[in-house]
Write a structure and sequence with these properties.
The chain is α/β, with parallel strands linked by helices. It contains 10 helices and 7 strands. A 7-stranded parallel beta sheet has the order 3-2-1-4-5-6-7, sandwiched between helices. The termini are far apart.
Length: about 260
């Protein structure tokens, strides 16, 4: 039997991958959902499935999150409807593999716009509301690559490092106001992200591959527990320990080989 919880959950990048899985797991808990992404047909199909299966309210918002003005308008629309977002899952992101100077500048800047600027904007506008109510939870989705710069993932790794450091700082800033901020740092996962990022799947990456469900479950539990950050999977945790315990030249060489073959 589905549990019911009247706390609204807003999920960005909800049309596939981790976003879709977050929607399913929160729907199973009985939360009403706001699903945000660019692909309207995918969002509508997911929303209809979740309404039918879990008898919850689902609002679909087609938004290009790389447009900061669209983020502000989304926030305004929800406030005008009297919808207080209690849980924000900041999942939308974009990645690309390849040598930095061989890629078009526009591609790098598009990644920075979505992964850094837009994430910052949507966190800011909804965190203000949460602070005023003195309650709320925010999950930022970073990456295992947030812990080191990796060859051929220069901009993506740097962007996710920003997300991790932002989350760590906000965890302490907002805790006193009743708002929890947790950062999830997944490793390689079977979400379709690799294909979209034109990423080569090396044997090491295939070995480390996790399914979305346990990654998302780990993120939700960490957010509920009020943790500052979490790395899902024992192999991924071991890689973070390797990063802490070895010189930069060593763990960066190791990760570059694992990621690029």
């Amino acid at each position: 039997m589905t549990k019911t919880d009247s706390s609204w959950v807003l999920i960005t990048g909800a049309s596939s991958g981790f976003g879709e899985e977050f929607a399913r797991q929160y729907a199973e808990q009985g939360h009403p959902l706001v699903l945000v992404a660019r692909r309207l047909e995918r969002l509508q199909a997911l929303a209809e499935t979740l309404r039918r299966q879990f008898r919850i309210e689902v609002v679909v918002e087609q938004v290009d999150l790389s447009d900061i003005a669209a983020v502000v308008q989304l926030h305004r629309r929800l406030r005008e409807r009297g919808m207080a977002i209690d849980i924000l899952i900041n999942n939308a992101g974009h990645g690309l593999q390849g040598p930095f100077v061989d890629r078009q500048l526009d591609a790098a800047l598009t990644m920075v716009q979505l992964d850094v600027a837009s994430l910052t904007a949507i966190t800011h506008v909804f965190a203000q509301d949460m602070r005023a109510r003195r309650r709320g939870k925010i999950l930022l989705v970073a990456s295992l690559l947030a812990y080191q710069g990796v060859q051929n993932f220069a901009v993506y790794a740097a962007a996710k490092a920003y997300v991790l450091r932002l989350g760590e700082a906000l965890h302490r800033e907002l805790k006193r106001d009743g708002v929890t901020v947790t950062t999830l740092c997944p490793g390689m996962s079977d979400t379709g992200f690799a294909a979209a990022a034109q990423q080569k799947l090396t044997p090491a990456l295939k070995l480390l591959m996790m399914q979305p469900a346990p990654v998302v479950r780990t993120g939700i539990r960490a957010l509920q527990a009020g943790r500052i950050s979490v790395v899902p999977g024992w192999a991924n945790k071991a890689l973070v320990i390797l990063t802490w315990a070895t010189p930069r030249w060593l763990h960066q060489a190791f990760l570059s080989r694992a990621m690029n073959g």
